[in-house]
Amino acid sequence: MRAELPPVTQLTDIVTRILGLNPGSFTLQGTNTYLIGTGKSRILLDTGEGKPSYLTLLASTLSLHQLTISDIVLSHFHLDHVGGVSDIISYYGSNNLPLPRIHKYPHAEDKFKCQPLEDGQVIKTEGATLRVVTTPGHTEDHIAFFLEEERTIFSGDCVLGQGTTVFTDLKAYMDSLLKMKSLQPTKIYPGHGPVVQDAISKLDEYYRHRVERENQIIKVMTHFGGTMTAREIVEVIYKDYPKNVWKAAERGIIIHLQKLEEEGRVERLDGGKWVLKSEAKC
Question: Which residues is 134 bridged to in the sheet?
Answer without folding.
Answer: 143
